[in-house]
Amino acid sequence: MPQPLTMRDRLVVALDLPGGREALAMASRLQGRVGLFKVGLELFSAEGPAFVRELSRWGPVFLDLKFHDIPTTVGRAVERLLDLDPRLVNVHAQGGSAMLGAAAEAVQKHRTGGGRTELLAVTVLTSLDAAALEETGHQGDPARLALRLARLAKNAGCDGVVCSAQEAGVIREACGDAFWRLTPVIRPLGASSQDQARVVDPAQAIRAGSTWLVVGRPITHAADPEAAAEEILRQMEGAG
Ligand code: C5P
Fold it and tell me: Which 8-state DSSP code applies to residue 56?
């Protein structure tokens, strides 16, 4: 398992850009300055696996595609993604233990063959508040559900979770430090929060127990993306 992670390894840039050409241009600028390039559903749907292969020339990739389907389908779809040897892939923890187990089995087989991919489970989307969760049959507060899903994911063989920085500490305590926490909604000190609520700054996220910090627009929309990435890294290192 690729350990230990440097602070730079832990900085993930979300390449939420209009198309592959723009994303590759940004990746070439940020090469070596960030740990991972995150490809979401929009970019993957537009550009597909060939683009991911090209992007991988600039650095390791996190395929943030959040699969959620029957176990066989998810297991096979994850196997196809593993052909691209991404550093991280993810699925929804809400898919249940059999689905998580099918994804984990595929990833473990890939690693046995020399692959480097690790599997994260999405706990609760931060866009869902208690009222939205109740609509879908979940009672109680989102943080408790996130912890429950993190435990489920760990028992099913996942390597970590996607969660909010606010939940990272509790999940680390319950599941152990080697069960990774990847947290979005990070904003450097002084930056606009844009459309995000409850933002956390880079040092706060490190202190809260985040393993990987996802930052999008504060880097990709900056006048100087290289300098923005370096400043975020400096703030992460300032966590002490
Ligand atoms: O530009 P920004 O830093 O807000 O981008 C955040 C990235 O993290 C986006 O790719 C978004 O889809 C993702 N994300 C998020 N909030 C969540 C989960 C994922 O913003 N709760």
Answer: T
pLDDT digits (tens, 9 = 90+) for 87-127: 999 999 999 999 999 999 999 999 999 999 999 999 999 88
Q: pLDDT of 152-207, one tens digit each?
A: 999 999 999 999 999 999 999 999 999 999 999 999 998 888 887 778 999 999 99
pTM, to two decimals: 0.95
In 3D space, the residue among 129, 126, 193 whose CA is nearest the CA of residue 165 turns out to be 126
Asked, for residue 38, whether it belongs to a domain, the answer is yes
CA 117 – ligand 1 centroid, Å: 21
96 lines ligand 1 (CB under 6 A): no
Domain extent, residue 53, equals 11-238
DSSP per-residue letters across 158-222? -SEEE--HHHHHHHHHHH-TTSEEEE--B--TT---TT-SS-B-HHHHHHHT-SEEEE-HHHHTS
- Tell me if 108 sits within 8 A of 140, measured CB to CB: no
Q: State both tokens at 37.
A: 């390039």
Atom of ligand 1 nearest to the CA of 196: 4
Which atom of ligand 1 is found nearest the CA of 186?
3
5 located within any domain: no
Domain assignment present for residue 124? The answer is: yes
Ligand 1 pocket test target in 12, 63, 214, 220 with most atoms within 8 Å of CB: 214
